[in-house]
Design goal:
The structure is a single chain. By secondary structure, this protein is of the alpha+beta class. The chain has one domain (4-168): D-Maltodextrin-Binding Protein, domain 2. 39% of the residues lie in helices and 25% in strands. It is built from eight helices and six strands. The chain is globular, with a radius of gyration of 18 Å.
């Protein structure tokens, strides 16, 4: 739905205890090793499941890995058995893009910005909300107030809007 943070908050009965204090949108892409032609989303997923492409994955528990599993589920019940490189993990988006740029993997699901930093061609997958959430009883604390002010500041919104693969939230 693009509102997965809200459903998480509701599922854990946090609605009355937390508040979203800011955030941005970020673009997830499949990034391809140099020399490999970018494929469509469907071709990339099929290439992963059929063993034609070698993946570098994100670590267990990362939202990017959860999202990749969601994309693979209609094509494959056990990606760890079918997708080459599924168990080869990286802990940051930058690390996945670096592994693809060096040829250790053919493809990764990463941020557009990370793909561009490493000069990788990419295929758009989705835009996701990245939000900062604070406990309501801590909203008056200096650090939380400063973070909220920073997230709404003109200079940060301009920076977010000028960075490839990022855009300000429209709320």
């Amino acid at each position: 739905t693009g509102e997965y943070n809200q459903s998480f908050i509701e599922a854990y009965w946090l609605t009355d205890r937390v508040e979203v204090i800011g955030g941005y949108m970020r673009e997830l892409v499949f990034a391809y090793r140099p020399g490999l032609k970018p494929l469509s989303l469907e071709e990339t997923l099929r290439g992963l499941v059929e063993g034609e492409l070698r993946l570098i994955n994100r670590n267990r528990g990362s939202g990017t890995r959860v999202y990749l599993d969601y994309l693979l589920k209609p094509l494959c019940e056990a990606p760890s058995r079918r997708v080459r490189g599924y168990e080869m993990v990286a802990y940051t988006h930058s690390e996945t893009a670096r592994a693809v740029a060096s040829g250790r993997a053919d493809v990764c699901l990463t941020l557009r910005h990370s793909a561009e930093v490493y000069g990788l061609k990419a295929t758009h997958v989705t835009w996701e909300r990245y939000e900062y959430i604070a406990l309501k009883d801590r909203l008056k604390r200096r650090g939380v107030r400063h973070l909220r002010e920073l997230l709404k500041s003109d200079w940060l919104l301009e920076l977010i809007g000028s960075t490839p693969g990022y855009r300000p939230l429209s709320h």
